[in-house]
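Aim 2 progress. For Bifunctional salicylyl-CoA 5-hydroxylase/oxidoreductase, the working sequence is reproduced below.
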Amino acid sequence: MTAPAGPDHRPLKVAVLGGGPGGLYAAALLKRLDPGREVTVWERNAPDDTFGFGVVLSDETLGGIEHADPDVYRALQAEFVRWDDIDIVHRGRTLTSGGHGFAALGRRRLLAVLHDRCRSLGVRLLFRTEAPPAALLARDHDLVIAADGVHSATRTAHADVFRPRLTTHRCRYIWLSADFALDAFRFETADTGRGIAQLHAYPYAHPSPDHHPSPTPPRTASAPPHPTTDRVGVPDGGASTVIVEMREEVWRANGLDAHDESAAAAWCAALFADTLGGRPLRTNNSSWIAFRTVVNERWSHGRIVLLGDAAHTAHFSIGSGTKLAVEDALALAACLREHPALPDALAAYEAERRPVVASTQRAARASLAWFEDLATYADQPPHQFAFNLLTRSRRVTHDNLRLRDAGFTDAVAAAAGVPTGTPPMFTPFRLRGLTLRNRVVVSPMDVYAADDDGTPGDFHLVHLGARALGGAGLVMTEMVCVSPEGRITPACTGLYAPQHERAWRRVTDFVHAQAPGTAVGVQLGHAGRKGSTRRMWEGIDQPLPDGNWPLVAPSALPYRPGVNQTPHALTTAELHTVRAQFARSAAAAARAGFDLLELHCAHGYLLSGFLSPLTNRRTDAYGGSLAGRLRFPLEVFDAVREQWPADRPMTVRISATDWADGGTTPDDAVALAAAFTEHGADAIDVSTGQVVPDERPDFGRSYQTPFADRIRNTLGVPVIAVGAISSWDDVNSLILAGRTDLCALARPHLYDPHWTLHAAAEQGYSGPGAPWPLPYQAGSRTPPTGRTDAPKPRLTLP
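Predicted structure tokens for this construct:
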């Protein structure tokens, strides 16, 4: 395929702004693919100037380099330090997990390899030279690659086009180096007396072949280092990157904001003296940094394209910065080769890279948040803490970790009291007088199948009965409404008439008789301003074409102005009426035979509307402060708890964030959970969003679970996690890490009513946590598939 060329069909003239790994590798690839190209790199620093010390590249990235440029791969391969183990040191205990497969080398050495490759190919390298503005270069260059870093001047100059979003986070960290090679990646916590600090360290250079460790005692942290260096500044005893990180408030409390570079290194060396063997730490323009996440809505503008940190950043704790930049370079070069027209090539580059980067950034944000909230987990048992750390980004899971190091995961399970051969998800859990046989919950799901008067029918019997037979520990109804005007749609179920109670009793009797050991719960709620709408598949949140009923809410604010009707703001007398409706429905639910009751205070429905500052604008005692906004939901909770049998558990579902500015915050969510717990809630069901239509959820794998995690590990209360938990591996990971007690899954149970039983079969489990109903036992083994053991051909004849 013909490579893109300039407008007069000559080879591209390319300007690269920034001489980091991404920019240099892009320059080398473009020149290698078409030697006729004129490629120039501008770098304002000297050739051997660099910040940081070692960089980590994955096997996947190295494979791409090997395929695209074997010469660079061979040069890098000779330099790599490889290791498999991660040592986790917490409160004086060291636990090791193996099988992880890392590779690292010095950043200076990486740059030297790329400098040599660029020179050999004829790339023009301009060091100590400020690049002209990208817009100026674009006048006489066919392509301008802005690889000018996290503080990209190009991105800033064209912010109206790239539309960047920059988020500064809550920890400070500093890059340092130790003059010896660790034998594993090491994570360690230390109590500074004013909060927790953490160390991330890994080797990036082997000792030189003729290096012999001194038998003399190690130097003290205050003694100056006198290393002999070679191989582009690497000490002859090898080298390790050492990153020290802590929350901003811990950093300030320790006076580190007043330390210079040398004093900061000495302080860190003293704090982690045992790991360093008393050795000092080296600096290299080292300063305390608050990490900044960079997201751009667009990556190209005419002939200008962003690459690496200029386009996106991901927290160092998943080792992704250099990796992403190099992969950007590979993709950009490939797209330029595959698409003759430059606009098409740049569009293809962004289309290819954006989903990969978004996934990495989600994992990085999860990892970053875990370290920001490290103090939350400080009191976890050692094995659980280590497992939680390793699975923090949600990319490494229980099953994945078991493949890497089965002995480690078995030890974690044993320490948690999980019986041998039992997946964590199949351990029992007790709430008040109810013991659930496993940790799987069929999440409440509106099915919009009730009669017009709110009576559940055969569909509900089959829908809930099938999922009860499918093995879940707890099966929840949809939101069951406490009054006709509290329904979302005319097809929503209720518990406000005698026929409702009889119909629900039919469901609970079936579950208890045909799926013994399965609990069935009811979720009580009131639609508030989100009521009087069509069924989901007829137009979600759209008003009925006719027959609409009046709506009520905390404040007279429509859900969608100009679309949904404006609700009536409830008076104090009307609040008493609604509270009585909830209490009446709770008593009916008890008579109907439900094992658990959940109060729905999430998703923008009536009680949720009181909790969020975006939907509660009241000026009386039921509005204003968080305590005021909590007042009515707590009154309803107390009224319901009074009617609900004392031995049966009661949970509350909350929206832990509104995903919108000015709405409920994670700190608010902890306060909400604490308040409901103090009033007698046995667990908090932690969901998010759906409160306002202009929300911006951060979708992704298990994306809502961090909110449940924070509540559980801050308050020590049981929680139910929800939100894109789609695999049994996710459930095992979340339970064993101590991030949740129960996992609620919705869509997986629509796809497969027997999801829990199939999860047991796929894991080879047949214990009491997932018994197959007797009529189904013949199907408890995975059905055979086509033959896969046919003999392979051994000879090919001409």
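The radius of gyration is 30 Å. This observation will guide construct design in the next reporting period.
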